[in-house]
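ugh ok fine here u go
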Amino acid sequence: MKEFVISEAKVETAILVGVITQTQDERKTNEYLDELAFLAETAGAEVVKRFTQRLPTAHSVTYVGKGKLEEIKQYLLDEAEAEREVGMVIFDDELSAKQLRNIEAELQVKILDRTSLILDIFAMRAQTANAKTQVELAQYKYMLPRLQRLWTHLERQGGGSGSGKGGSVGLRGPGETQLEMDRRIILNRMSLLKERLAEIDKQKATQRKNRGRMIRVALVGYTNVGKSTIMNMLAKSEVFAENKLFATLDTTVRKVIIDNLPFLLSDTVGFIRKLPTDLVESFKSTLDEVREADLLVHVVDISHPGFEEQIEVVNKTLADIGGSGKPMMLIFNKIDAYTCIEKAPDDLTPATKENLTLDELMKTWMAKMEDSCLFISAREKIHLEEFKSVVYQKVKDLHVQKYPYNDFLYQTYDVEE
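structure:
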C-alpha cells in the first residue's frame, strides 16, 4: 500500500542588510536590524544572517558597495549548494527603483526593503474595509515609481519612432505601451480608493459627532508597547493583543467609565521608525481619532533599550499628522520586564542609562513630568489603581473645561472587577 507523507510547509528564510553611516552608528544600526528581524518574523519569515557595511551614506546604485554585494551573493550561492536556499534579502531602508533593479539583477532572489515589508504586514493585518482600502492605496503609491522593473523582459523589443531615434532605451514599443497601460490602471485605481476613503471619512466624522458630550482619550505610542492590553484592562473589552508588531491596525473606540465619569477611549495603530510616508498619508483618516482627542496617553515600553528614541519617533509622527500640542500623559508600561546592568564596585566610569535601576529612572522622568508620568505593568496589573485615578482626574478637569454646564452622566458606583 502506498504511503502518503505530509510535509510541513517550509518557513521562508531571509537575510538582512543594513548600513552604518555618519548619522547612524553601529549600535543604532543593530537596533534597527533587531526591529527589522521582528518585522520579518511578524510577516512569517525566519532571519538566518545579517550583513552590515560602514559607508558615508547608502550607495545610490546598489545600497551597499560592490564588494559587500559580492559577499552577499556568495553567501546565497553557498547556502543554495548546501540545500539551505535563502528566499529573500531584506534591506533596512527604502530602496529606489534603480537600487531594486540593480540588486535583483546581481543577487537573483526576491528583494524587499523596510517599506515593502511593513506594507506586507499591514496587508496581512487589515481586517476592515477602511484598513484594507488604506493599505491598498499605500501599496499602489509605493509601486507606481517602481513599475519599470516589472517589465524588464520587454526592454529588448523595438518600437518608438520610425527613425530609431525616438523614445527611451528599454521603453519603446510594447514595453512603453504596457508601462503606460499599467500606470493608467494604477492611477485610476488610486483615484477610486481616495474617493472611497473620503466617503468612509465622512461616515466616521458623522459617527464622531454623534458620540455625545464626552471627553475623548487616545492611546498612542510605538508599535508593540501594550496599548491594546491597556485598552482591554480599562474598557473590559476584547481588543486583539499580541506580542507582534502592528497587532492593531484598525482604530477601536470604547466607552469607559471610571467612578462616575464616562469618556471615550481609542486604541490607535502603533508607530515605528522609518514609517513609510505613503503609509502615514494613507492612514491619516484613521489617525483622526488622535487629532480630535482631548487627551493623549502616550504608552512607552520601558523594557526596550531604545525607548527614548521611540518616544522621539512618536512625538515626530504626532507632529506630522497634526496631533501635537494636546494635553499628554506619559505611561511607562512593562515595568515587570525592566532590567538593568549593575556596575561593579570598582568601576569608576560614569553610570549610563543601562546602569539605572527602575527607581532611579522613575525619579528622573517624574521630576520632569510630575503627575503626567506613571510607571505601570498592564499585564501584571501593577500600579493600575494609581493609573485609573490620574486618568480620572485629568479627564474630569478637561470635562469641566469643555462642558461646564454638563453634569456627569452617572452616579458613583462600584464596578465589579
